[in-house]
UniProtKB/TrEMBL annotation:
Keyword Flavoprotein: yes
Record has Membrane as a keyword: no
Keywords (A to Z) from UniProt: FAD, Flavoprotein
Signal sequence coordinates: none
Record's protein name: NAD(P)/FAD-dependent oxidoreductase
């Protein structure tokens, strides 16, 4: 009898799980449940919708034909429950599964009592981008809460759409977890040059109507208050199923959850206590989950991750250890630094033009000699 592999979630993790499952098992019935009313799309391209640079068709990962060719049944309905070995979907259907992959992703995180209503929202889905588009007119002030990769990228698109953008960062520097101090400072200068106001050490205490209240008592008004301070994994189904869940669904390196035959991957999953929230990792984990759900034996290895951002008119790259000995250069083209131990590169930062990302990535992962990179 044919196996039925059910994948819940049509993000990159779910899609790559379905693809990998098909590769592993040409015969199985594969169902991919997707809660959004669009074909599975590239989530990192969602900000492009703000300025009409893309639409859901343009950012779709695959055409409808792909699902037909691969014999993957794409069901555009949310899974509401998993009971007695069956998934129960919002369209009322029930399907029994042999194995199940939870790739339910995550949603924007809001602090304390702040709810995503009125002007308060995140930017994660096509629907979020359209909501912003509808809410805003050229010249409107927008407050972006969060000076991380996604906040700065959203700020860039909002600025390009003609908004007056202020970024609030609770810490003392932009991307301060990814960059070194000089890199953070340079990025702040680039943001200001780009026409975006940056407020550091600005901690949000509450929202009142269209205003954000800071801990120091200051009040900042915006037509939209965009929160970009992280992601919360969608774990509701997993919790209801009684799976082990911390911040996200607990899985091992084979993407197996605490229940046999049930896998999880991507933003919904955590491996060794880490919930990565990154595209390539979600894709890789999805492929491992899908392969194993179809009877294969794949293992996911955590890579050394480079942080990459194209925003504020510059390229930002950070990878590896950013402590110890450093050689650096700063000029009109930007700030570049290599961290090394006895001449072998262990980390790199680049904020500026023409970043040789592939070269830096290779240099850090292979601990190349300093002589190999021209700053
Ligand atoms: C604006 C933005 C920009 C980003 N840029 C980058 C970047 O430059 N580089 C990078 O590495 N990462 C980036 N990321 C992060 C990256 O996009 C995510 O890590 C990745 O998309 C996670 O994929 P996923 O499939 O696990 O989850 P998601 O993309 O969240 O997809 C999960 C899908 O499952 C659906 N779903 C949830 N529950 C159910 C259910 N019960 N039934 C059916 N469907 C369900 C959801 O509707 C969603 O479509 C970005 C994220 C955002 C929001």
């Amino acid at each position: 009898m044919k196996n039925t592999i059910v994948v819940v979630g049509g993000g990159v993790a779910g899609l790559s799980a379905a693809q990998a499952a098909r590769k592993q098992d040409g015969e199985a019935r594969i169902l991919l449940y997707h809660a959004e009313p669009y074909l599975p799309y590239y989530r990192p391209r969602v900000p492009q919708l703000i300025i009409g640079e893309a639409d859901p068709d343009k950012i779709a990962v695959k055409t409808e034909q792909f699902y037909r060719d691969q014999n993957i049944e794409l069901i555009q309905s949310p899974v509401l429950a998993v009971e007695d070995g069956e998934v129960v979907a919002g369209d009322g259907s029930r399907e029994a599964y042999t194995t199940l992959v939870l790739a339910t992703g995550g949603e924007s995180f809001f602090p304390g009592n702040i709810e995503p209503e009125g002007p308060v929202q995140g930017l994660r889905t096509v629907a979020d981008a359209y909501k912003l588009q509808e809410r805003l007119c050229v010249g409107d002030p927008v407050i972006v809460v969060g000076g991380g990769l996604l906040g700065l990228e959203a700020a860039t698109y909002l600025k390009r759409a003609g908004m007056k953008v202020t970024v609030l960062e609770g810490e003392s520097g932009l991307l301060n977890r990814q960059l070194d101090e000089d890199g953070s400072r340079r990025l702040e200068e680039e943001a200001e040059n780009f026409g975006i106001a940056v407020r550091l050490n600005a901690r949000v205490s509450a929202v009142e109507g269209h205003a954000i209240l800071l801990e120091d008592g200051e009040k900042l008004e915006g037509a939209a208050l965009l929160f970009s301070i992280g992601m919360r994994a969608n774990t509701e189904l997993a919790r209801k199923m009684g799976l082990a869940v911390n911040r996200a669904v607990v899985v091992n390196s084979a993407m197996e959850t605490s229940k046999a035959g049930v896998y999880a991957a991507g933003d919904a999953a955590e491996v060794d206590g880490r919930n990565y929230g990154l595209f390539n990792i979600s894709m890789e984990q999805g492929a491992v989950a899908g392969t194993n759900a179809a009877g294969g034996k794949a293992v996911w290895q955590p890579p050394v991750i480079p942080y990459v951002m194209q925003a504020l008119g510059v390229q930002t790259f950070a990878m590896g250890e950013l402590t110890g000995e450093r050689v650096q250069k700063e000029d009109a083209k930007g700030y570049r630094a290599l961290y090394h131990r006895e001449g072998r590169i262990v980390g790199a930062v680049w904020v500026g033009e023409k970043c040789p990302m592939a070269l830096l990535r290779k240099a850090v992962s292979q601990n190349a000699s300093l002589a190999e990179i021209q700053l």
